[in-house]
Design brief:
Elements (H helix, E strand, L loop, with lengths): L1 H17 L8 H11 L3 E4 L7 E7 L4 E7 L5 E9 L3 H11 L1 E2 L4 E6 L2 E9 L3 E8 L2
Antiparallel strand pairs: 1-2, 2-3, 3-4, 4-8, 5-6, 6-7, 7-8
Length: about 130
């Protein structure tokens, strides 16, 4: 019985971590968070002279996470590019952790700030963005 309880607690913790909004985190904090909570995602080295971001991809190449950083290395937006095969799971996840805000849109509220989460379908993928609500 104790094993089942422990398994359920770990499962619930992992699910809530996947939806974590990391806007406001410093780049090093994101790297630490990803190392501890998203071991299924691998960091990729990227060089871009126009803007700074951290990039992570999963082993199956079904998800890529981009954390956009400002000049102080603070995350100000998140983009996830997902294979269409994981879209339904993402919608289910978002419905369980965010407040719906129209079709394919949710509001995440924490630290007295609101963030908009949006899924946009592309031809071969879906793009999920998280940014401060305007």
């Amino acid at each position: 019985m104790k094993n089942i309880t422990l398994t359920v607690i770990i499962f619930i913790t992992c699910i809530s971590c996947y939806g974590q909004n990391l806007i406001g985190y410093k780049g090093k904090e994101i790297e630490e968070y990803m190392k501890e909570n998203r071991q299924d995602m691998n960091s990729a080295n990227v060089v871009n002279e126009k803007f700074s971001y951290l990039k992570y991809s999963d082993n199956e190449d079904t998800q890529t996470l981009l954390f956009y950083l400002d000049q102080d290395s603070v995350c100000n937006g998140v983009k996830m590019i997902c294979d269409l095969s994981v879209r339904a799971a993402k919608v289910k996840e978002f419905n369980s952790i965010y407040k719906p805000n129209g079709e394919n849109s949710w509001i995440d509220t924490h630290d007295d700030k609101a963030y908009q989460v949006v899924i946009k379908d592309e031809k071969w993928s879906c793009v999920i963005t998280i940014e401060p609500n305007k």
